[in-house]
Protein: Aspartate aminotransferase family protein
Amino acid sequence: MPSAEHDPQALIRRLTALRGTDLPVHGGRTMAYVYDSGLAGLDELAADAAAAVAGVNGLDMTAFPSVVTLENEVVGRAAALLGGGRTEVVGTFTSGGTESCLLAVLTAREHAARTRGVTAPEIVLPVTAHAAFHKAARLFGLTPVTVPVDRTFRVRAADVAAALTERTALVVVSAPSYAHGVVDPVPEVAAAAAGRGVLCHVDACIGGWYLGHLRAAGDLPAPPAFDLGVPGVTSLSVDLHKYAYTPKGASVLLFRDAELRRHGWFAHASWPGYPVVNTTLQGTKSAAPLAAAWVVLHRIGTDGYTELSRRVHLASRQLADGIGRIPGLTVLGSPDASLLAVASTDPGLDPFVLADETRQRGWYLQPQPAWGDSPANVHLTVTAAVADEQRISLLLAEIAAAADRARAVGPATVDPALAALAAGLDPDTLGPHEVDLALTAAGLAPDGTMPARMAPVLATLQALPPALAERLLPEVVSRLYGG
Structure:
């Protein structure tokens, strides 16, 4: 008999026990990070497809031509939806939104260098653009030029135009932005970029599949224009593991044509090994996410996605209206999509405490710290699993009850002495001792254990200068991983 260390059933029991500490990925109670269609049998179908290609290596498409067929069909589906009717649109299947955004920036850098001679490139983006673009700028040596947004949290085309220079390699707009669920004025921004010969990327990672299919729901208002049919838009990213409801590890980066796409590919033959061509940042890569995405796209189909998008849209509007009727709460901006940022109008009602209270009752609402004119809030990602009257009513009742409990608890406070001390710290010279003191003062245990209530920790991090918070956040994660 195998020991517990090697026994298959014991290993699965151990894995199941570990998963018991996670947030649930089905049922609609985890309103961030996961996307649940609510359709029965989809997980099993995707798992079977992934298992069918488990040994396939996507590194060499000539050795495994199945990956070419699968990718062409998946990308073709995305191009048909978001290519604006342009037959020359092409794309690449990637591991997720971050990789798609990284590749869009890398492609723009290479394009600017080869076609315009730009040697010190800049990327112009709204302050609401996803952090992945700042990551890309750091990795690939671009200077980020951030542009403010208006009171609706949308960027102004005139501000983008004013930020463009001869060094600008790429302009980024969101459809929608993650934090507030609003779509930037893509046609106006893209026109400003095109007027200067600059590429324009639309980050539709979270909303593109949903908004694209929503256009086919004839009884609902059409979303703002945002895809590759908009003049001046040169690339677009859309995640399938979000509102296409495929397993994690699936995104598509679309380009206006194959010539632009080639600027982001890597080829190397100057070594004694095999010729290397990488279409993504990865070399060896599993075909499992691709096969799983392929089978889910076929299973749900255009009509299915249109209906799911319609249900999500109606549920989002119901939730926004219902939250607006809860005393002390308001939805920020005017969301175009299925993302809601809920802030407090009552000084005694702390959104971070509200998030703690809902989590104590089995709901996860994502806390978002204050930044600029955007106050602290909780973020709701509405998926099809939430889109029924009973669940919407249940969620609204829980938010209202949690708001009352949060008032009774009172806002999380930050020790003024700690805030004063933090203001005088230099993030670049912090040693291990100072880091330990700062994290302990924020309420984090030395072994990395997260407290049951995160409001005090979030309040402390929010009060820190951004550079100091960015210095300490990796240390928090390092503690989790035992370092």
Residues 216 and 306 are 6 Å apart (CA to CA). DSSP finds 16 helices and 13 strands in the chain.
